[in-house]
Each structure stands twice: as structure tokens, then as C-alpha cells.
Amino acid sequence: MFVLNPKASESTLSYAFRLARFNGLLTVPFFYKYILLKNGGFVSSKKLAGKLYDLIGESHSVLFEEVTKRTQDILNNHRVSRYPIVDSEGYFPDDEKVYEKYDKTIRYCPTCILEQHHWHGHSWLKRDWLYNHRCLVHEKKMLSIGETSDELGLNIFDTFKYVFDGKLVGFEENYARINNQYESRPGILAPCVLVDYFTSTRRNGYFDFKEYECSFSSLNSLFYQYLNCFPSNEKEALRQYLFSSVDTCSKEGFYFYKARKPCIECPHKKYCLYNKDDTILRPIDEMDVESILEFVFQCSCLPEHISERQLTVYSDLITHVNDFFEPLSYEADTINWLITLMHSTYSTHSEFISKGESSPKFDNIRREPISGLLVLTLRRERVNSSYRVVPLPRNFEKHVKKYVEKRFNGKFSLNNPLVASKSGLKSIYPGDLNKLIRKSIKLFNAVPVEGLNLHSIRDAIAASAIVAGANMQYVTKSSGLAYSQLQRKDVLPIESRLPFTLM
Question: Of the candidates 172, 226, 143, 103, which has an alpha carbon nearest to the alpha carbon of residue 487?
Fold first, then answer.
């Protein structure tokens, strides 16, 4: 068997298709059993991984490990639930089976496909096409395999071949004669790289939070989630670290990247594929760095219906709510702190306030010992969800210090409520918080009534973060939602009049 090297941006489904086709294994039964179902849905990732193991698992173990990671769509097995589609009326269906149906969508950019053929002689499907609806290269809406199948009157198998062959009717000349298809080096990042990066950038904290304990795989996922939720300043810092502290070698068609430290005492070596006996390391170069950054920071885009004007109007609303009350008052401190919590977690306000006999406290915050990052345990009780761990931005503890000094006279206790009542002894009551919010937003007439709430503010915060470089799937996971509210067409309603401005 001739074993192809996967493209750095390629999805597992695409690689399996190309591998089988090149080796004469691609039949109709093979396709529907291991790649896509007859209705266009995804085949079980376990079934696909099992078949790939039969084909390349023993002879090319490193390649197999890397390719099968991509069945999770998001890096390093950090799977994020994806329910991106609404029904024809713009609402989410209640039936979970409908969600499953909508979730199974293969999309492609016809311009990218044609450029791939022009510059590389063949095409492939990118991983980011699985969780984006617009091409990040050409900024155009992508097409789905299902839509193309219906339009051409072909079955899914023939449609897949049609797309891969690049004979896309109506798009023959619709691509640039320049190479937009920059393809980074297919690489494997050793576990020690992010561990060493976060260790080297660790900062001292102000408070003695309890230690956060988790498995190493969860820790690795937490680091990826942090970088993709709060990429500001991190990308340049990681770039500098890579040049100064990481080496690479080539192995089985992949570039392997590891921290410039001895492996013999590394506590994470059992999770590592690097074999120091048969490789020669070299310092990484500019293309290596760009490849790693592209691998770590996963770009995503907002749905088309969220406009720049909507974000501007809701940014004005957030500023208005933050500045409405008298400075240094209890009301101002509470609202400012609540908005800070929402900015730091993308979560709904209801997770931070009183819930009957129990209420979130500072004890819900833990410190991860390697990185020094703070994480917050949250739970959406209305939908009976499980607890989740949300990474907090590096500057979060400064905000905690400011809030403690104002509301608790500088006396920090893990038993303090996360959002305190006026007395400071208990968590704020939901009714009291609602009064504050209604008082502060009722004069903002650029947003209709249905958009004047903290849920819309949370959605605006999340959308603005994605525009600034955060990944939509990771932000969705932090928010605790099974699907993203941002896919609803009316998620950020605004009036046609000009945004409200304070006099």
C-alpha cells in the first residue's frame, strides 16, 4: 500500500477518502461504511479509526495517531459539541434527533478546491470547514455536500468524487491565480511544549486558592481552550517562546516539535511519541513557527447575520450598563464585577448568583499548579447540566483583588459569595439583580425590549471575542451551551434608529 502524507489542514474523512482512492480501495460499500452515510451523515469516528488502523496503524503508527486525532474536529481530543443550524423559522428544534441530523454537515469552499487543484494537483477537505460556515480564506459562504447532491441529482458518493475532482460547474474561473492555499507543515506538538510555555509565563497570584487537579489529557485540553478563548497577547508570547525554546525533527512525513529540555526526567513522556534514539533535532525556523501557531490557534468566523453594526450597538449597551450607576456605589461595583465575570467565562449571569440553599463562592475557583491559571467550576442548573471547568484570563485575579477590596474590605475568604449582596454576607438575590439591570438598561432605546437583557449582553461579549480572534467552538464550550446561541438570526436584535449615546 502507498501511504499518503495528510495535509496539515486536512480532516480525517478527507484523508481516508484520498488514501482509499489512491490505493484502489474506494468502492461504494467502503465509502458508506467508513466515510459518510447515505444521508450525508458522519460515520462513527471509532469505525473510521478502526479501518485506518487496519490500513496504516501498524506500519505508520505516528501518522495513524495524528490523523485519528482529527476525528475529534477540535485539537487534541478536546471535542466540542456542534449544533450550528436552526430551522427554517430561525428557532432551535426541541427534538435531540433533529439536532443530530443538523449536526452532520460536510461543507466545502469551491474556490479553495479549484486553487488546490491549480497549485497542488489534487484537493482535500479542511478540518475548519467542519465547524465554520464561511471560508476563512475567501470570506465566502461555503457549500454543503448535501446541497450539491440535491442540485446535481447525484448520490453522496458521486457528489464527494465530483467535489474532489474539482470539476465544479460555474466555478471554473472563479479563483485567484495566486496561491492562497498556504499549507503549513504537518506537525505533532509534544505535550511538553505547552506545559513548558505556560510554566515559563506563569505569574504570581494574590490569593491562596485551592489547587485544581485533573488528568493530563484534561490539562492539555484546558491549555488549548485557554489559548483559543483568550488569544490576545498570547500568540506573540508563544511565538517568542517557540523560537527560543523548541526544537524539531522530521519523522514519517511529520515535523515533530518538542521543548528544548531533557526527556529522561519528563513526567509527561508516556504521552509523547518522540523517540530520541533515531532522530536528529534542529532549531525551528519561521515556517515551523507559523505552522505551530496555525495548529494551536484555530480561527473561526461569526454567522453572516451578525453585523458590525449589531456589535457596535451592543458594545455601547455594555458601556452604558457599566457606567450607569454612581461610581464606587454598591450597584456600580456589582454590575462592573458581573460584566467582568461574563467577559471572563462567556457564561450567563444566572450561574454566578444565588441558587436556593447553595450559591457560587470563591471556593469554586481553583489554581492550576503548572500554569498558575485560575479555573472556575460552573453549572447551568436550569437544564440539569454537569459541572464544567472554565479557564479564566490571566488578569482575572486583579479584578478579584479590586472586588474584594471594595465589597469585603480587603479580607478575602473562599467562603465569600462570588457576587455578594449589599451586606456582603450572602450571594445577591436574583430579584435584586434584575432590578439593577432593568434600571440601567430601560433608557437604552437602540435595542428593542427583547434584546435588553443580560443574555444578549453575554452573546454580544462572545461575538466580540470571536471577532477579536477567539474560536467559536471553544467559546461555546466555556459558555456551557450545547450549541451556540449566536446561530439564531435574532440573537442580537437592534432597532433601525441610531445607537443610543449618553449626553
Answer: 103
Tell me the pTM.
Answer: 0.78
Task: Please state the separation of Cα 333 from the chain's center in Å.
Answer: 31
DSSP 415: T
Place of cell 518522540: 274
**What is the arrangement of strands in the sheet containing 388-391, beginning at the earlier edge strand?**
210-211, 365-367, 374-378, 388-391
Q: Given pLDDT bands bounded at 50, 70 and 90, which one contains residue 81?
A: very low
Read off the amino acid at residue 95. Answer: D
Q: Which of 92-96, 143-147, 257-261, 330-334 has the lowest mean pLDDT?
A: 92-96
- Segment (H or E) for 102: helix 96-103
d(CA 362, CA 180): 48
Pairing of the two strands 107-108 and 365-367: unpaired
Q: Could you tell me which of 24, 3, 27 has the C-alpha nearest to residue 15?
A: 3
The SS3 assignment for 203 reads coil
DSSP-based three-state secondary structure for 20? helix
Q: Which of 276, 300, 185, 192 is CA-nearest to residue 242?
A: 192
Of 123, 125, 111, 116, whose CA–CA distance to 175 is shortest?
111
Q: What tens digit of pLDDT does each residue of 155-193 get?
A: 999 999 999 988 776 665 555 555 555 566 777 888 899
- φ/ψ of 321, rounded to 5, equals -65, -40
pLDDT band at 91 (very low <50, low <70, confident <90, very high): very low
Query: Residue 277 above 80 pLDDT?
Result: no
Residue 483: name the closest of 146, 147, 91 by CA. 91
The whole-chain average pLDDT of the chain stands at 82
Helix, strand, coil shares, percent, the chain, to 5: 45, 10, 45
Contacts of 59 (CB under 8 A, 6+ apart): 1, 3
Q: What's the rounded mean pLDDT across residues 334-350?
A: 93
CA distances to 198, 253, 276, 292 from 259, rounded to whole Å, are 12, 20, 13, 13
